[in-house]
Description:
The protein is built from 19 helices and 8 strands. With about 475 residues, the protein is an alpha+beta fold. Helix 9 (about 170-185) packs antiparallel against helix 11 (about 215-240), helix 14 (about 275-290) packs across helix 16 and helix 15 (about 295-305) packs antiparallel against helix 16 (about 320-335). The relative contact order is 0.16. The model is unreliable at about 190-195 and about 195-210 (pLDDT under 50). Bound molecules: protoporphyrin IX containing FE (HEM). Protoporphyrin IX containing FE (HEM) binds near residues 274 and 410.
Amino acid sequence: TLRNRYRAVYPPGPKPYPVIGNILDMVTSEPWYLYMKWERLYKSKILSLKVPGTRIYILNSFEDAIELLEKRAGVYSDRPRIPLIEMCGWTFNTGLMSNNDRWRKERRVFQQAFKRESVDRYQPTQYDKVHEMLRQLLNDPADFAAHYKTLSAALVLDIMYGYDVQPKHDRIVQVVERAVQTLIENGTDPSVAALNVFPAIRYLPRWFPGTGFHKVVDECTELTKDMLNIPFEHVLKCMREGDTRESLVRSLLEANVIGEDSAKGIAGTALSAGTDTVLSVLECFFFAMALHPEKQRKAQEEIDRIIGLDRLPTFQDRESLVYVEAIYRETLRWLPPFPMTVPHVAEADDFYKGFFIPKGSIIYPNAWAMTHDKERYEDPDSFVPERFLTADGKLDDNSRIMAFGFGRRLCPGQHLASSTVWLTIATVLATLDLGLPYNLDGDPIKFQQIYTKADSLHLRPYNCCITPRSPAARKLIEGTEYTAGY
Length: 486
Ligand code: HEM
């Protein structure tokens, strides 16, 4: 049969050891680089690794990801079971659920709330929060990183829970950050996904060597509960007290079609999927601009020419600000927040390009490899917004943002994320100048020196002088205090 004929033909990869397979080969920080190295070594953009009980497939090419995860979405829309994630109480997370009824129901809620035509309703909140950040950047520029961090959480907390964050050190923002960071740093590595097949590990006693993750699990479980419950209680309290403030959680509870558990889980999912990611993109944008004053100038010329100096950019300007759009695309290309996106799982045996992909295989789209593919992007490690412009200065049709993933699991928050990031880019460039980045000792820094070693991208802290572009720009920022959320 077909299956027998293909059975043994798997994509290339390092030779597996008995029992543990390739687990040791995968234990590395920044695995996306390793998989690009293997692509050259094994001369294949599809790689496979043996882990006990299943196989992991790495897709380094955009075309293969489209072919499998989109054209064959009927086969590739499941998620792996990752014990660490379940043990930490992350079963609430819509994005990590198997392809089942609950996932489909909750995903529909996301799509309804955040589809392209729906996100306009959040514009007042977006203006409000982005302008608040501009004022913070003006008044307290040295702490710039704290301000866009606040923005990333403030937006989701407002939309989901009707909760107003403190400009700094907000309790809920800190809980969310720690819950997400603890989990991401420990739980999304492909090598941890491989633990799948040793679920018994969780029953090992705490003194057993190599079970240090119990501590991680306990900490993570506590943080997760707080992340789910604290903002949710806020909604219940507001409702009890007759506060009329709207929020998605409130409308889900009032409509009473999805149940309290799902409402809570959906909101927690938005927090965990939509805060850290947006933060990562904003970090990359600020850093890219600090590194490239000439790109700031170019965007500022465009903004001044098209909008003038007497108002801030609004969403209506998006289509006419071509270079700003190119900066948006380039930021998500240059440093995609989840370089390995989120794994999909094959729900049936499949064959592709002569390779066998058995049911249960875990598929990692290597978004980093796709956005740093030399055949697609010249000099991919450099930040060059111009690559998205045609010779006559128009945007090219390469608008697909690979960082949002693929197929039926494609990020449903992409329109909200896109408009928030865009408004930040446009208003920051319209009003502020970012100086060159320097480290905490005062020395200038370059790109290579700034990576942290978590799976979601974050940049090490650095310094940067942020100043208003002109007295008029300062006035524009200060004026937002009175036009909040127009
Ligand atoms: C720039 C910011 C963001 C990036 C780069 C991003 C990226 C991603 C990626 C790569 C996935 C997995 C896609 C796949 O499996 O192929 C995903 C899933 C998801 N994202 Fe986002 N995301 C962002 C912002 C947001 C926001 C703001 C929200 C919510 C309001 C959100 C909600 C979700 C949800 C619910 C899923 C799970 C989808 C599912 O499994 O059905 N994301 N995102």
